[in-house]
Design brief:
Blueprint (H helix, E strand, L loop, with lengths): L14 E4 L4 E4 L34 E3 L6 H23 L11 E5 L9 E3 L2 E5 L5 H10 L7 H17 L3 H11 L6 H11 L18 H24 L30 H20 L12 H20 L1
Parallel strand pairs: 3-4, 4-6
Antiparallel strand pairs: 1-2, 5-6
Length: about 325
């Protein structure tokens, strides 16, 4: 049983995801359930609230390719699958704003019209052409990005959406600007400068990616997305019982699960890193044994760890309050 599955791969029992219970359920013989209206169109395995309704995830998609756009609809399946994974993680973290009327997605294909991936006023626009491996790899090389996926794009744009929802109050904004820079700096000028001059030579000492150097908004979004990468991967590793005991591995305990502490006042991000870093060393070594590039092509400098820890603190604080 996997998160994306509609049937069990061993016994063929139908599977559906219940977004209220945040659980993948086995629909045994005789069970009654309501499929999402996008079950066929987007391969959605989430339950709907009523006959012919969209599920909680698909209902957030405001715009999609039309039914005559076969290539666009094929790419939509990839984007919607990634979107469901992002939304579940946000729900598990208890973050606010994951509802109709607050958040919406325009999933469009630049093969049909000009599309700029981005976020504005609660609307996240995604270029479905990013689901094409060749195009995505070309843009990854063009922009010097070691990691670029549909899931990563969605997490980045969700980071933009979440920033004003999790940075609440003057004290939190002051702390955020101290770490990430003043977000009130002119964004257009910053983008022009970034593409004209490129990132600073020492960007890895202060930022999680070269693109994060563009503007404090982008630094926040890249760091927030990275936080989601880390916590989701650790949770998955924990569910599969992955334990790293390799050369010089530092493992805090016998679990790699990165669930937030039960006590919301425990903001120690170090515990997550003590599990995360050994896991990345092992995964990179395994990839190299298969002749592949590193699965985790990042180095976390102390300044980046401080930013990730701040994101962790804000997620716990706001998630707990929510």
């Amino acid at each position: 049983m996997f998160f994306e599955n509609t049937v069990c791969l061993r016994c063929s029992t139908p599977l559906r995801f219940d977004s209220d219970r945040l659980a993948l359920l086995a629909m045994e013989e005789g069970a009654q359930w309501l499929d999402c209206a996008n079950y066929e169109l987007a391969g959605c395995n989430w339950l709907a609230g009523g006959e012919g309704d969209l599920c909680r995830s698909c209902a957030l998609t405001r715009t999609r390719p039309n039914n005559r756009d076969a290539a666009g609809l094929e790419a939509l399946v990839v984007a919607e699958r990634a979107k469901r994974r992002v939304l579940v993680q946000l729900m598990e973290l208890g973050l606010p704003g994951i509802r109709q009327g607050s958040l919406a997605f325009d999933l469009l294909s630049s093969a049909q019209q000009p599309v700029t991936t981005g976020h504005a006023d609660g609307v996240i626009t995604i270029d479905l052409a990013e689901s094409d491996d060749a195009r995505r790899e070309g843009r990854r090389a063009q922009f010097g990005e070691p990691y670029r996926t549909m899931l990563g794009n969605l997490r980045h744009e969700v980071g933009h959406y979440m920033q004003p929802l999790v940075i609440v109050g003057d004290e939190a904004w002051t702390a955020c600007r101290r770490l990430f820079g003043d977000d009130r700096a002119d964004y257009g000028e910053a983008v022009e400068r970034h593409y004209a001059e490129g990132p600073p030579a020492d960007w890895q000492d202060h930022h999680v990616s070269a693109y994060a150097t563009t503007h404090p908004w982008e630094d926040w979004a890249e760091t927030f997305a990275h936080y989601l990468h880390i916590t989701d991967t650790l949770e998955t590793a924990g569910e599969f019982g992955v334990i790293v005991e390799g050369p010089r591995a530092v493992v805090a305990d016998d679990s790699l699960t990165a669930d937030p502490p039960a006590d919301p006042s425990d903001h120690d991000f170090t515990k997550i890193l003590e599990s995360w870093l050994p896991l990345t060393y092992a995964l990179n070594a395994i990839n190299r044994s298969m002749g592949r590039d590193d699965l985790y092509p990042f180095a976390l400098a102390p300044a980046v760890v401080d930013k990730l820890a701040f994101v962790h603190q804000r997620v716990l604080a706001v998630g707990d309050a929510h």
